[in-house]
Structure to design on (183 residues):
């Protein structure tokens, strides 16, 4: 569940309970930091447009610190998404900015277009490839094989993106001493 919806619900519940009891609010409900909005332009993604939109939606469902939105007409996007005949790739310029190529070569080999989109957007969000890797790791990319259709980031990948963008869910890394996590 997202922090934004949790805090919004908590605030609403507090207001309802205060109005029902006639009491006063002693402390404000916690407020989640606003998500950093990144826009993407998928006009050049050709037949992959719906896969790109779904890949962006998956990131929006998965993290709170950043939100991917289609660019408004006449505006410049943070992320350009293009289709080409090569291998899929992302060319980040800075965190949250760059170009994604949805390459037909991988699609022709049987790789899932939504997984490709989410994976390449993950690079723009600051995640590296983690190859070889299991299907449960979005950033394992092609090393998980063509049978892998999982387009969702795992908990570690979500946490890393939250940390990259200063999200409320990103806490400090646990301290490990002699193989034991120390609080």
């Amino acid at each position: 569940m997202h922090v934004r919806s949790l805090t919004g619900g908590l605030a609403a519940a507090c207001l309802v309970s205060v109005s029902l009891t006639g009491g006063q609010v002693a402390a404000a409900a916690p407020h989640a930091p606003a998500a950093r909005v990144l826009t993407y332009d998928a006009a050049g993604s050709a037949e992959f447009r719906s896969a790109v939109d779904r890949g962006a939606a998956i990131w929006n469902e998965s993290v709170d610190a950043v939100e991917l939105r289609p660019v408004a007409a006449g505006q410049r996007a943070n992320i350009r998404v293009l289709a080409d005949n090569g291998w899929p790739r992302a060319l980040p310029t800075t965190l949250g900015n760059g170009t994604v190529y949805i390459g037909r070569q991988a699609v022709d080999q049987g790789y899932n277009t939504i997984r490709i989109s989410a994976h390449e957007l993950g690079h723009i969000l600051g995640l590296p490839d983690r190859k070889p890797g299991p299907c449960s790791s979005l950033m394992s990319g092609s090393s998980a094989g063509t049978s892998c259709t999982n387009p969702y980031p795992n908990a570690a990948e979500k946490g890393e993106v939250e940390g990259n963008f200063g999200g409320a869910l990103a806490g400090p890394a646990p301290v490990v001493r002699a193989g034991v996590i120390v609080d």
